[in-house]
Amino acid sequence: MKGLLSLLLVLFIGTIFTRGVDGKAPFTKNLWSLQDKSTAVVTGGTKGIGHAIVTELAKNFGCKVLTCSRNKEELDRCVEEWKEQGLDVRGVVADVATSTGRTVLIEEVKGMINEDDSAEKGLLNILVNNVGTNIRKKTVEYSEDELDFILTTNFKSCYEITKLCHPFMKRQKVEGSNHCDKTSSIVNIGSVAGVTCMKSGTPYAATKAAMNQVTGNWACEWGGDGIRVNCVTPWYINTPLAQQVLKDEAYKRYGVRKFKIISFTSLK
Ligand SMILES: NC(=O)c1ccc[n+]([C@@H]2O[C@H](COP(=O)([O-])OP(=O)(O)OC[C@H]3O[C@@H](n4cnc5c(N)ncnc54)[C@H](OP(=O)(O)O)[C@@H]3O)[C@@H](O)[C@H]2O)c1
Prior knowledge:
Bound molecules: NADP nicotinamide-adenine-dinucleotide phosphate
Structural class: alpha/beta
Radius of gyration: 18 Å
């Protein structure tokens, strides 16, 4: 089972590619499974990649999912749509860039994992740190507030939420041994921008590189707690966030020239 969930989430992205390219049904369903009613938190689930992950976990893997966003109207609409599909998804309005928002989210996490039908009552099985944002400009043009906004939204939120969720994800060691027989999984949504240089804005790139680094450190630190930690680093996927770039034909041409393999993947 080691590494299974991270592979699974990588495969989710693969599934998204497959759907985008030929419209076929996801191939993950018969290959992978999770315990029914496994509990999952996915931050920023009303749009884009987060929305796809929430749907995939709830629909094809029978998870109970909690998500959040800052826009109540949009969140309510998404939760209603998931309910209509018979999926166990709930949402809370929370700005995870703020300490107050993170506290609100964690209270909801406690409520969800302590419900009687949760796969392992009191335990959070999966955390996906998906929230992320960007402002694209030249380094010298960022105001201090803009820099703070990107660092706080992308990196501090991930760090603090993970810290707050750790007690609910940590597992007991098998008696008389130094290992846990089951694992929980944290998946950070990084970016190609965190592993190479691609004119996506230096603060954004720095936060994504930082996510890679904490991912490795947490994996080492928490392996003994039965928590796996992985980072997925997507290339461009056609979401509201990427629209800033995808509508810029000059940038697309630069991408084709520089990276050769450019493709802009649709979520549907
Ligand atoms: N799309 C790409 O090409 C691409 C490529 C590489 C990596 N990524 C990464 O993938 C992740 C998702 O990107 P995306 O393209 O799906 O973004 P998106 O379309 O902008 O969706 C972001 C989601 O997060 C929510 N959100 C944003 N800030 C929040 C906050 N402070 N508190 C709570 N919720 C918040 C948004 O809802 P509200 O705005 O209503 O709060 C929305 O539901 C990000 O970390 C991004 O860096 C994306």
